[in-house]
Here is the input.
Amino acid sequence: MAGKTEQMIARVFGQIADGLETGSFGARPKIALTGMGSEHGEENAMAAAREAARAGVDVYYIGTLEAEGVTTVKVKDDEEGHQKMEELLKQGVVDGAVTMHYPFPIGVSTVGRAVTPGLGREMFIANTTGTSSTDRTEGMIRNALAGIITAKACGNPEPTIGILNVDGARQTEMALRELQKNGYPIRFAESSRADGGAVMRGNDVLKGTPDIMVTDSLTGNVLIKMLSSFTTGGSFESTGYGYGPGIGEGYDRLVLIISRASGAPLIRDALKFAAELVQGKVLEIAAKEYQAAKKAGLEDILKKYQQKPKEAAEEVTAPPKEVVTGAIQGIEIMDLEDGVRALWKQNIYAESGMGCTGPVILVSEANCEKAEAILKEAGFIS
Here is the structure.
């Protein structure tokens, strides 16, 4: 009896010590880590597990190694490791998992978290692996929501959104502004460049201008790799939190992705990231955010901005040529020539061009205001 009492007292004092160190006096989040398959060996993953355990995470290490303070679940290879991870998640033994690859269903993709080199700011990258939608623009709109969910679960109640200047950026911005107008709260970041705006450039990636950088998942994957390993030449991901949790409407499990190139410091922080999401009740936040977005007309907006197959371009004759020094920004590159033809139909001479912030339509200074109104009416710009 005395022995059991001593063990209970030791456990209580251990929890108090963890609470003082981590600031949380609740149950320690239980996070599984698959350690086999890393390019840097199992020792690299176990080193991360030990450090995360000291920081207040209850780590279930799936592999062959053992260490004090870490629960080891023995498996013989990587394949068995993933099967065991699935089992632990399904049975509720662990609250979440960190792993090197995972087959997310369409509609679910991961929100990365990086430390940007310019100012040392943390920035969420939405998204980095998986596919939120097979339609590019819809995917980026959904990525923005996933970023907001993740940031809120990590304690930021009003994260700022920036949209990387890639194909689909302008359409995504218009869609998100419609969602905002309909009552879903979105705070847009302003680019650090002189001309501002919510569409971000490379400078903003390095500086971490927005709390959440929205992009397609392939571009996001490149960004997270570069930001995590820019000091190591790419072979060792040393900074940041990895590729993050899979977020999607109705998705009910917490799985975070790292890379086979991820080093111990990044894996440690990915485990802490997972624990933070558990404590922040990310799945509950996701349900609330999707419900709020739907109330603001998300489904109709997604249908409106889905990319439709282009019909054969109507033959339109250009009006007489004139000097074009007025630039209209904010049009998607795929819509550029259609926008020019739309102005020609209204007897306004226009040309397509490319400015430092992206595609532009060039018209005369005298026609600039009228041309903008036509393009807005036709849905080419917001």
